[in-house]
Design a protein that fits this description.
mainly beta; extended; about 1800 residues
């Protein structure tokens, strides 16, 4: 810093010496402006350009080169001169002017009692400054006089500025300098190397690292910023740690001397809020927090700092009057340099800071409100000086709003040689004020200096605004009173400083007052409405008004806010002319909507009324592009902000939204890049897309709980919410009590990285975070639902917790969250909708909670990293594509309750090794496990009935599969392509083998089909190369085509005489008859209970599985049940009977009981209207009366509206409509529903904070709040003082625990009041009408009422009996009692049934049983036993022996069905066997019954009949036959340049031999083929090859050859190129792959596609016809050329390719014509016309217009809208020749 000051001084001196003579002569005069310029440079004064004062001096304008310097000097208070006067910048700078302004900056004070050394002091305004100038040798006296009007010379200015630079250098400090202290004898110095910690109250020290000894009575010096002296009263030591009990002493008494300098920043994390002040820490990463602990935690990240500290304090809030003060601290710093105790004492202390303050007050105009003049907001600890008190200065009457920010410096410097000087500096940031009455408001920082040794006192700074007012009563018919106001800035510094053994100084300085304020705003009000500064009634008020005198800032100034909440649309400019500030329109209710703002205010307060009309809206684009705006205060009448309203207000940094605001439309604040933080109003309902889009520096946002609209917009580019593309938005604060995150709120927000969802939030709505950059989400304990697309496309999301309250996750909720690696599902979760985790390819494992009953379609589709998935026991179904493409999933266990796996559910799970199904699985749909290549273990349990098409298609690792007996339906291609499948067991429920079921299973060798299979489909076992054996039961009667690909090696086992034997003969397979009797038969059920009218299936298992016996089923009583051939039992009538199945000599039976089912249900109510929190008992009655099980189960379609207990008690929860359904427990298809409409919402408050209505509450409200203070006999309920219900129209109803109304209230009857309520519960019902509302209500406290008590109950349990419920009675000592904890009646506990009458086969018996608790008894019939049937197989009568039919006998009685059959005798059939070439013929006679046979009628053998080497009858070879074939006829061509020979097929030829020669004479064997063509690929380009072919016949392993064919020869050429064509810059471009051997390519061209001419040659593999004419169609062919021995060997032509050439792309420029966009381009050759394309965002272009000219004016363009254009040249005859679109040009329409 020292180097910088020295270099600055040298630069000033060099600059002065080099200036031209006309500016600075050797001893020439210095002008006032030259002096001010050098002064602002020397003291480094800077002000932002748009914070300059305006129209301040009558002879200075913004066109002047020195304008900036004048304005900076004015802003810093250098010029003590009335605004509006002449500055006279080019007149000489006088001695007094220079002395005053320079000492204003330096701040030197004369010693008290000092006398002037010059004789003309009486003529000076600033005599003290003149004496300082003499003392510091700035000026020499002339004849004993100062000569104040004498001009300053160049040399004097140089000397003055050099002295100033030296002073500035002297006040800089070396922060690295070592401090030196001398202490009094006996003081023990704790070295800085030791660690010392001071307790909060300063009474103890903890020291680590001190090697000396300490004892009580010692005096110690501890180094902080300055030494602190303590007296030790006690010492303890443990493990090297000293703990001292101390008393702080006055350091001045123990420090002899000191030499120290440095700089200390205030620790903003230690800022202490004053009483009732709210404090908020704003971190450098955008996070906002009111917790000091959290701020400290964030500071542990070294990259994070505290940027600002916000302070808010409400001074008054009652009866509609509210006064609020708010401030912000950005920095506080102490700089010091103290050398005291020697002969040359020196001290410099400086406090620097940056702060802002605001004040808002609203109450009746002219009413005085008593407030403290100084309101302390906070204390800022700065080491070395203690705490800086930061206060707001407020003094006001009436209505005011103010915003003011400042950078300030205050301090002092003392040296023995130069004396005392005050250090001061101010510069404003932004400022605005509007008021109707007297005002003083600003900020004060007071720094006490008591902690600095040798120095006492304080320095303070005060800055802000003042407004003066003149009020007059007017005698007019229309105007009752006038008010004239004038507002201006003020600034002041003061000090009271004492330096030990030196002196004490005190003074204060006015820097700005009304005379020299950088701004002054005047306004005039009539009856409270601004008239723009003009009095219309002619009273004398305008002459007396303060603002009418001298300089006044114009209505177009950055300062101009026309005072108060009532304003005019017009004002007066700085030149005195009328100026329109606001343009507006009126709505249907005569309210104003601002449509255009023409002012230039940097801190703007929009008025409540304009021209007497209430301002309710900001219209579309009203402030768009306003770059002056920095601070914005909106009135509390405002309800809406329109689209684009403040778009691209790039300097707007602060917005004060009113609580009345309901709607912020799309793009309203888009591109407001200076916004860093926003607090949305707490009643905001509508926030549209892009509302704050692309606010590049927005770091934090406060979100209210009232937003209800869908805030996002979806496009092909993604989802876009109100904070879209806010790259720095990282800190989000939600309103207390917020219950949902609105739809799309953070969609497309690129800055948000982490977020905490409060406990009060119950739902995250759709798209809330879609396409955002969110990385981490911490969700509170109250969330119940995450809606669809909530986190869609959040590809940075890696961490999220799901709370135990969560019940639902919507469809696509986490789709494409590609970096989400883990997720823990809570047990509360009930539903996960489709696509919820689609594409989450980093997700490694899942464990679904126990309440999930279905996995929806595509839920985990493409989760390619998932290795494990644990499914819940309650799971009922898995949706289609649920786990599709989960390539890492290794195993899956299907729970017992899962009945359905839908199509493609696990398709392409290529790592899946095992599948274990539960007992409840019924259906596996098509493609369910397709392409699960690693699947080796499949365990399907009994119960599965259906397996769909391709379910296990291409499961290459599957070796073994067992289909359960319960499976009755299987799909086609079930195991097709299972390359390792070898062992297959098919269940007995299968009735068909579908087409391609085992197609291409190369390892499958054999299979046995179950006994019920009736058909085998097409290609069922085709291409299964190892398949050799199949057992086909007698039931198969239908065979498809191509079932087996290799029948010659197939053996079919089956029953003789069945279709299996016939089919074997048809396909040429070997048939082996089998006879395997059944050894055992078993049914899957031995007893069965079934409802009348329904069906059930009995499954039969038989051993051995390939038995050949027939199967027979029968029912003992077909009036009870019937049974089909497949075991299907149909219940016909109520009763009990037996089903029996017989398989050969084996049998099994099942006892079946049929009961009467429930067929219908009635309810006591089918529609119901209820209030929230009320109950209603629904009663269900099941019919018919004799139904076996009449119980029902209850369910609610939406538990957020109403719940229902297991007994039908309905409890209303929240507003809406719900269906309550009662379903028969036994018959799920029988149900009855009641539609319940809940008319309002009910809130069961967990704590008192939830007893609060929305503010303002909605119309047509009837909501209820309920709160219980357990066991209180009486409670006291206290309401907030703001409680207000629309008086006489809306009401609050208060009820006690019994539902009795306690009171009915309206207006403010409950404001700040308490009411007592009997019992422990209060119910509050808010009822509002259809129009108008107020703030609502809030309960601040619920407590046990005075004199009441908390019940202490004794509980007595009454146990349930068999027929009566149990319950618990609770009785308090006061006599109060209640009953709860009801338990169901126990029901009878019957003992075993005892038989009283035995049943017989045909008569019923009886039995009785008795309850073990109450001795009640019941009797029932025992069904007749039915015959115990023994089945006797039939014996067929033979030709020689008698037989009998199958018959039954009973083992208990004489029942029998035996019938005898007589012998049949022989019945012969004759079969003639014809003679063969070598054997005789004969006739065979066989008995059809017993097989007895004999032969006769013999005939001679026929002998052989040879032809073409074989016998025509038996195929025997002719031993004399010569099989040589004929010679083939040869043809030759080329294929891809290679010789290709072909020939006719020769009869009898099995193959052909090829011979080759290169000279046409010497042929050698070359190759062999079975085909009739041959391509010789091993050739050399340019060589001619000759070929001959022989046909070859193979007979019994010998080759018989034909003669040679005639030889054929051909030259080997390159292959013809394969050519493609496209455009390059509109010209035809041909491309082809390099041809082997080719060294160049010839291009041929045609314009008609017929007549081609050689065009060009190239060695490359592409060619662009750059000379092609635009808009013309050309045809091309290409030949490949090889050069062999200097000669070209040319390929055949390529195929013809054609293309239209494009017109050239227009080159477009853009200007405006009469404010409208005008496009210009040069004519494009061949173009007939031009198409114009237009866009408003530079991205999405659409066709706009066409023209035949080369210019185009967009006359319909809207004013102030930026448009983008492209142009295309068009060929009318051929659209293929149209040019590409031109480059984009853009411009903004100005009219």
């Amino acid at each position: 810093m020292k180097k910088r000051i020295l270099s600055s001084l040298l630069a000033i001196l060099m600059l002065v010496s080099l200036l031209p003579m006309q500016v600075f002569a050797a001893e020439g005069e210095v002008t006032r402006i030259q002096w001010l310029q050098k002064l602002t440079e020397t003291f480094d004064m800077t002000v932002e350009a748009d914070n300059y004062p305006d129209n301040y001096y009558s002879d200075v304008s913004s066109d002047d080169s020195y304008y900036r310097d004048v304005m900076v000097a004015t802003e810093f208070g250098l010029i003590d001169q009335e605004p509006g006067t002449e500055l006279k910048p080019n007149e000489p700078a006088t001695r007094e002017f220079a002395a005053h302004t320079l000492n204003f900056c330096l701040g030197y004070e004369l010693e008290e009692g000092a006398t002037y050394t010059f004789a003309d002091s009486a003529s000076l305004t600033y005599a003290n400054d003149a004496q300082i100038a003499v003392n510091r040798n700035w000026f020499a006296l002339v004849d004993g006089k100062f000569m104040p009007e004498q001009a300053v010379t160049n040399s004097e200015m140089t000397a003055m500025l050099a002295d100033a630079a030296a002073v500035l250098e002297g006040q800089e400090v070396d922060t690295g300098a070592q401090s030196e202290y001398t202490f009094a004898d006996g003081v023990k110095e704790i070295p800085e190397s030791a660690s010392v910690t001071t307790s909060e109250d300063g009474s103890s020290l903890t020291i680590v690292g001190y090697t000396g000894t300490l004892k009580a009575g010692d005096i110690v010096a501890v180094h902080e910023v300055f030494p602190v002296i303590y007296s030790v009263t006690a010492v303890t030591s443990a493990d090297g740690v000293l703990t001292l009990t101390v008393t702080k002493l006055d350091a001045d008494d123990y420090i002899i001397s000191m030499n120290t300098q440095g700089s200390v920043d205030a620790d903003l994390s230690e800022v202490e809020a004053a009483e009732d002040t709210d404090i908020t820490y704003i971190m450098s990463n955008g996070v906002e927090t009111q917790s000091a602990a959290r701020a400290q935690a964030l500071l542990r990240d070294k990259k994070v700092k505290i940027k600002d500290v916000k302070l808010d304090k409400t001074l008054y809030n009652s009866g509609g009057i509210k006064v609020k003060v708010y401030g912000k601290l950005t920095s506080m710093n102490l700089t010091y340099n103290v050398k005291l105790g020697g002969n040359a004492p020196y001290a410099m202390v400086r406090v620097d800071g940056k702060a802002s303050v605001g004040c808002s007050a609203s109450f009746d105009s002219m009413e005085s409100l008593e407030l403290p003049s100084s309101i302390t907001l906070a204390y800022v600890p700065v080491a070395g000086i203690g705490k800086i008190a930061v206060s707001a200065k407020v003094s006001l009457d009436g209505e005011v709003t103010l915003e003011y920010s400042t950078n300030f410096t205050a301090g002092f410097e003392y040296s023995k040689s130069s004396g005392f000087r005050a250090i001061k500096n101010f510069s404003t940031g932004s400022f605005s004020v509007q008021a109707q009455v007297d005002l003083k408001a600003g900020i004060e920082a007071n720094a006490g200096l008591a902690d600095i040794p040798f120095i006492t006192g304080y320095v303070y700074i005060e800055a802000g605004a003042r407004m003066k007012m003149y009020y007059s009563t007017v005698n007019s018919n229309t105007v009752k009173y006038c008010v004239d106001t004038s507002a201006y800035l003020y600034a002041k510094v003061g000090y009271y400083i004492g330096v030990k053994n030196v002196k004490t100084w005190s003074d204060s300085y006015e820097i700005w007052d009304m005379s020299n304020s950088p701004m002054k705003v005047h306004n005039h009000f009539e009856n409270g409405v601004s008239t723009g500064g003009v009095c219309t009634v002619g009273s004398d008020c305008s002459n007396k008004g303060y603002g009418r005198n001298g300089y006044t800032t114009g209505a177009n100034s950055r300062y101009y806010n026309y005072g108060g909440s009532n304003g005019s649309s017009k004002g007066t400019s700085s030149s005195g002319k009328p100026y329109t500030i606001y343009e507006y329109s009126l709505d249907d209710y005569k309210n104003a909507v601002i449509t255009k703002y023409n002012g230039n205010v940097s801190a703007l307060f929009v008025p409540k009324t304009i021209d007497g009309y209430t301002v309710v809206g900001i219209g579309s684009s009203a402030f768009e592009g306003n770059t002056n705006l920095r601070f914005l205060h909106l009135p509390d009448t405002l309800t809406s902000i329109g689209e684009y309203a403040f778009r691209d207000c790039i300097n707007l940094g602060t917005i004060d939204f009113p609580e009345s605001l309901i709607t912020i439309d799309e793009y309203a604040f888009y591109g407001c890049n200076s916004l860093t933080s926003i607090k949305l109003p707490s009643n905001l309902q509508t926030l549209e897309e892009y509302a704050f889009g692309s606010c590049a520096n927005l770091q934090s946002a406060w979100i209210p709980k009232t937003i209800t609209n869908e805030t996002y917009w979806a496009s092909s580019y993604g989802y876009h919410g109100p904070f879209n593309n806010c790259g720095k938005l990282k800190s989000i604060t939600f309103a207390e009590g917020i219950t949902n995150i609105p739809s799309g709120l953070f969609a497309g927000c690129t800055g948000i990285e982490s977020i905490e969802i409060p406990d009060t939030v119950t739902r995250i709505f759709s798209m809330a975070f879609a396409d955002s950059s969110i990385q981490s989400v911490k969700i509170g304990s109250g969330l119940t639902g995450i809606n669809r697309y909530a986190f869609y496309g959040c590809d940075s999301l890696t961490e999220i917790n799901l709370p135990e309250s969560l019940t639902s996750i919507g469809d696509h909720a986490f789709r494409d969250c590609i970096n989400l690696g883990t997720i823990d599902f809570p047990e509360s979760l009930i539903t996960i909708d489709e696509y919820a985790f689609y594409g989450c390819n980093s997700l490694t494992s899942i464990k679904l909670p126990s309440k999930i009953i279905r996995i929806e379609n595509n839920t985990f589709y493409g989760c390619s990293s998932m290795t494990t998935a644990e499914l819940p026991e309650a799971l009922k179904s898995i949706g289609e594509y649920a786990f599709y493409g989960c390539e890492a999933l290794e195993g899956i266990v299907i729970p017992d309750k899962t009945y359905l796996i839908e199509n493609d559910a696990f398709e392409n799970c290529s790592a899946l090794k095992s599948l274990k199904s539960g007992t409840g699985l019924r259906t596996v749909e098509y493609n369910a496990f397709r392409n699960c290549d690693a699947l080796t273990e499949v365990a399907l349990q009994e119960g599965v009935t259906t397996i769909g098409n391709n379910a296990f298609y291409d499961c290459d690792g599957l070796e073994t599969i067992a289909i359960p007996n319960s499976v009755t339906s299987i799909g086609t291609s079930l195991f097709s392509g299972c390359e390792k499948l070898k062992n297959v067991t098919l269940g007995i429920g299968i009735t068909q083998i579908p087409a391609s079921m085992f197609y291409q299973c190369p390892k499958l060798e054999s299979i046995a089909l179950p006994y019920r299979v009736t058909s085998i489909g097409d290609s069922a076992f085709a291409n299964s190369t190892s398949f050799t054996s199949i057992t086909i039961p007698r039931s198969v009667t239908t065979f498809g085509s191509n079932i087996f690909s290799y029948p010659a090696k197939l053996t079919i086992y089956g029953v003789s005489g069945t279709k299996a034997e016939t089919y074997a003969g048809e396909i040429g397979a070997t048939f082996v008859p089998i006879d395997k009797p059944a050894t055992s038969a078993t049914l899957d059920k031995t007893t069965l209970n079934i409802n009348k009218g329904s069906s059930a299936k009995l499954n039969l298992s038989v051993q051995p599985v390939d038995f050949t016996d027939e199967v027979n089923w029968k029912s003992a009583d077909t009036s009870v049940v019937t049974v089909a051939a497949d075991g299907t039992v149909k219940a016909v009538g109520v009763g009990t009977t037996t089903i029996k199945v017989t398989v050969g000599n084996a049998s099994a039976s099942c006892k079946v009981t049929v009961v009467q089912p429930v067929t219908s249900i009635s309810l006591n109510k089918t529609s119901l209207s209820m209030e929230a929190l009320s109950t209603y008992q629904l009663t269900a009655t099941a019919y018919p009366n004799d139904a076996y099980d009449k119980s029902v189960k209850w369910e609610s379609s939406d538990t957020s509206v109403a719940t229902v207990s297991e007994n039908g008690l309905v409890t209303a929860v929240g507003k809406g409509t719900v269906t309550i359904k009662a379903t028969s427990t036994a018959v799920s298809s029988v149900s009855r529903s009641c539609t319940v409409t809940v008319t309002n919402n009910g809130i069961v408050a967990k704590d008192v904070a939830q007893l609060e209505s929305p503010h303002n509450y909605s119309n047509n409200c009837s909501d209820i709040w309920l709160y219980t203070l357990p066991d209180a006999s009486k409670i006291t309920v206290t309401f907030d003082e703001r409680t207000n219900i629309e008086d006489g129209f809306d009401y609050l109803y208060i009820y006690n625990a019994s539902g009795e109304q306690v009171g009915k209230y309206t207006g403010t009857e409950l404001a700040g009041k308490s009411i007592d309520i009997d019992g422990d519960t209060v119910k509050i019902k808010l009822v509002s009408d259809g129009g108008g509302n107020e703030w609502g209500f809030k309960v601040t406290d619920v407590k046990v009422a005075s004199g009441a008590h908390v019940h202490s109950y004794t509980s007595v349990v009454t146990a349930p009996s068999c027929t009566e419920k149990g319950y618990t009675t609770h009785t308090c000592t006061c006599g109060d009692s209640y009953v709860d904890s009801y338990t169901d009646a126990l029901g009878h506990s019957y003992g075993a049934w005892k038989q009283t009458k035995a049943p017989t086969c045909t008569e019923k018996g009886a039995e009785v049983r008795t309850c073990t608790r109450c001795n009640a008894s019941e009797t029932r019939d025992i069904n007749a036993l039915g015959h115990d049937i023994k089945h006797h197989a039939a014996k067929a009568a033979t030709c020689t022996e008698k037989g009998w039919a199958a018959y039954d006998t009973c083992s208990r009685c004489n029942y029998s069905t035996y019938k005898e059959i007589a012998a049949t005798g022989h019945h012969h059939n004759a079969v003639v066997t014809a003679p063969t070439c070598t054997a005789q013929g004969y006739t065979t006679h066989t008995c059809t019954a017993c097989g007895n046979s004999y032969k006769d009628s013999y005939t001679n053998a026929l002998g052989h009949n040879y032809a073409n080497g074989k016998c025509t009858r038996c195929g025997a070879a002719d031993p004399n036959y010569n099989p040589a074939p004929a010679a083939p006829a040869l043809k030759i061509t080329t294929s891809a340049g290679k010789p290709k020979i072909s020939w006719n097929a020769v009869d009898g030829a099995a193959k052909y031999w090829i011979y080759r020669s290169t000279d046409g004479k010497n042929f050698k064997y070359y190759d062999s083929t079975t085909k009739t063509s041959y391509t010789n690929n091993s050739t050399t380009i340019g060589t001619t090859y000759y070929y001959k072919v022989k046909a070859v016949n193979v007979v019994e392993g010998k080759n018989y050859t034909s003669d040679y064919s005639v030889s054929k020869g051909i030259q080997c050429k390159p292959a013809a190129p394969t050519v493609s064509i496209n455009r390059s810059n509109g010209k035809p471009k041909l491309s082809w792959k390099a041809v082997s051997g080719a060294t160049k390519y010839w291009i041929y061209r045609s314009t008609d596609g017929v007549n081609f001419k050689y065009w060009d040659s190239t060695t490359k593999t592409s060619y662009t016809n750059s000379g092609a004419a635009s808009g013309t169609k050309y045809y091309y062919r290409v030949k490949a050329v090889a050069v062999v021995n200097g000669k070209n060997v040319v390929s055949a032509n390529s195929s013809t390719k054609s293309l239209f050439t494009s017109l050239a792309k227009p080159s477009v420029s853009i200007t405006t014509s009469n404010g409208k966009p005008k496009l210009t381009w040069k004519a494009v050759t061949g173009a007939d016309k031009y198409y114009i394309y237009r866009s408003t965002d530079g991205k999405n272009f659409s066709y706009w217009d066409s023209t035949t000219k080369t210019t185009y004016v967009n006359s319909g363009a809207k004013k102030n809208t930026k448009y983008y254009y492209k142009v295309k040249a068009v060929c009318a005859s051929n659209s293929n020749a149209n040019s590409a679109q031109s480059s984009t040009v853009s411009i903004k329409a100005t009219k």
